[in-house]
From TrEMBL:
PANTHER family linked to this entry: ANTITOXIN HIGA1, BLL7220 PROTEIN
InterPro entries associated with the record: IrrE_HExxH, Rad_response_metalloprotease
IrrE N-terminal-like domain mapped to chain residues: 9-110
Any single Pfam family the record assigns to this protein: Peptidase_M78
Name of this chain's protein: IrrE N-terminal-like domain-containing protein
Domain of life the protein comes from: Bacteria
Length: 194
């Protein structure tokens, strides 16, 4: 989720329950809404591939291009695999970790730039992500939830500002505070310590 007000204040909220690679894609997707989309409206996004409106498709393509530039991908794929369009699981793992993205995001990017066929994408998607990473000696942190409670910037301050300007309701404000592990309904502790 992201918000931008008329004075160009921006903030985004990323679900830390999602795997780290998915979070990276979501951040890039939301950057499209915050910096490229003409008039973004607050909404809940589900970045990734599938049928959705044109704006969401553009945000997904932006995220893919930003995180996984075609030239960079091609440089990392062995020439024999590039020529045959038969990308191995070892190469997929190398690319996932190099670009720090999910398997799903990488496979759709390879499909969209014509480096694999749909049948290859489906086959590679069926391989157990964590299992294959361990088999090839990769760390599995990319596939695990991460960054719980991490707040970068002035999220709480901006949420309060939106609430005070009556752009969001009190319940929405409290919900946003809960997302950064702050209980917005507690009484002022200073006034109770007398």
């Amino acid at each position: 989720m992201c918000l931008k007000d008329s004075s160009a204040h921006r903030f985004m909220l990323i679900n830390s329950n999602q795997p780290q690679g998915r979070q990276h894609f979501t951040i890039a997707h939301e950057l499209y809404h915050l910096y490229i989309e003409d008039k973004p409206t607050p909404h809940k996004c589900n970045p990734g591939y599938g049928s959705k409106n044109l704006t969401e498709q553009c945000a997904d393509m932006f995220a893919s291009s930003l995180l996984m530039p075609e030239a960079g991908i091609c440089q990392l794929i062995p020439e024999t695999e590039l020529k045959t369009k038969n990308i191995s699981i070892a190469t997929v793992l190398k690319l996932e970790h190099y670009f720090s993205v999910s398997r799903q995001a990488l496979l759709y990017r390879l499909l969209n730039i014509g480096l694999i066929a749909e049948s290859t994408r489906s086959k590679l998607a069926e391989a157990g992500v964590k299992y294959s990473a361990r088999c090839f000696g990769y760390d599995t942190a990319l596939y695990e939830p991460a960054n719980e409670g991490l707040v970068i910037g002035d999220f709480g301050e901006k949420a309060r500002h939106l609430f005070e300007q009556e752009k969001i309701s009190e319940s929405h404000y409290i919900e946003l505070l809960h997302k950064i592990n702050i209980n917005g309904t507690e009484e002022n502790e200073d006034s109770t310590r007398r």
